[in-house]
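Mods, move this if it's the wrong board.
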Amino acid sequence: MCGRFEQSETPRYYADALSVHISERLKMLSDNTPSYNIAPGQRPWMIMLRQGELLFISMNWGYRTPQEGTEKKKPWICARVEKSLTGRYFWHMFSEGRVIIPAADGM
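Not the wrong board. Structure tokens:
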């Protein structure tokens, strides 16, 4: 199904692969149970660069505007890169930063 993926390794595994220092926050995340069916709306963990430090964070999978959230609309999970660069819906995300989502397509 579109938008579903798996995170079958722990954050510690990816930190070691990226040669990243294991912080106290990462030690808490390192015990996460692998998930083989992450769907839109769930909270997978992601890697983000903030002020020169790689952070392992957890966020909702998908995006919706505050108005769409109030209206309980489903989150957006797919966008063409050319539309995201030129459309008003996604443009602010490029100035606020990006994340890496370690994932495998298990479907």
